[in-house]
Amino acid sequence: MIVARTIEKQLERASWIRRMFEEGARLKQERGAENVFDFTLGNPDLDPPAAVVEALHAAALNDGRGIHGYMNNAGYSDVREALADRLVRATGLAYTANHILMTVGSSGAINTVLKAMLDPGDEVMVLAPYFPEYRFYIENHGGRVVEAETRPDFQPDIAGIEQALTPRTRAIIMNSPNNPTGAVYTSEALHELEGMLARVPDPPVVISDEPYRAIVFDGIEVPETSSIIRRCITATSWSKAWAISGERIGYLAISPLIAEADDLRNACTFTNRILGYINAPAIWQRVVLRAADAVPEVAEYQRRRDHMCAILQRIGYRFDVPRGTFYVFPQTPIPDDLAFVRELVQEGILAVPGSGFGRSGHFRLALTAPCEVIDRAGPGFERAFQRAN
Questions:
Q1: Do 5-48+296-388 and 50-291 come out as alike in CATH topology?
Q2: Cα separation of 126 and 128, whole Å?
Q3: In the chain, N or C terminus with fewer CB closer than 10 Å?
């Protein structure tokens, strides 16, 4: 057998997001692209911010000889210094360049830190519903996934988290703004979590995955997790916010409040290399130096959210209005979310079943299609809902 048994098992439960995306390709061939409404993949269809495009041109043309060569495994020092200064302003903590590692996106950051921290059998907790690739990232490094359910409003259930902790829990992965729900964890929930962890001997770290931090609605602010949770490691990416999902650039930030921060930084600098990520793309590091604060077209995503939510509410779907990201996570009108997603496919509508995110009875819609497409999908959403009722 040429394929490892571990990978064979993982392939059996591989991401529903990709499965439905591939189903969409098949349907478009059969029915024509104009008759298929694809809300599966969080693949932004907007252009990158103008400041990012300008920075990319400048980095490609004006930075001189040697800009595409090796650098320190952790990334360019001036880029890390700039990001550390940014974090100091945001959190009030004493971040320095030594707390920052430039990574191949947020997924690269999470794999880098899990590789540095986990021994076989160590546990990592995820809060359901959660991005399904977390399971594979954890298993990549010999870890065991432990699921803790969130509350009905998708906020962390602190009592449930405490109950799921064991002496082998090494980390808790949190994602806010959250994929798939669009929930933004409140500062009250984070303070409650920190209070609970402070009572735990040898508490786990919290890995705060924040690729959607810049995409929030209604004027809300996302709490700075590392200013509340002492043992916090931040992983983030510009791929979603800048609509450059085909490019991978992000960073890992180890809180200076972690007593073992130096040891962990050294380990992560090593694992970043041995995982084959050497180095985070040089040209995109230079873009980050020039345009780190470039903002996405949040107003357009909010317009799409409002449009989709109005259509679904009129039909009778039940859901929490997302506070951020570009996803909506409605309840299915029948308990079997897989069966309901098949009903939607009959209407040419592609969605992802909630069971793929660890929460059955829901489905996820990505707002990466314009309002005109959302409008044309509306009758199909209604027909599927009526058949299910």
A1: no
A2: 6
A3: N
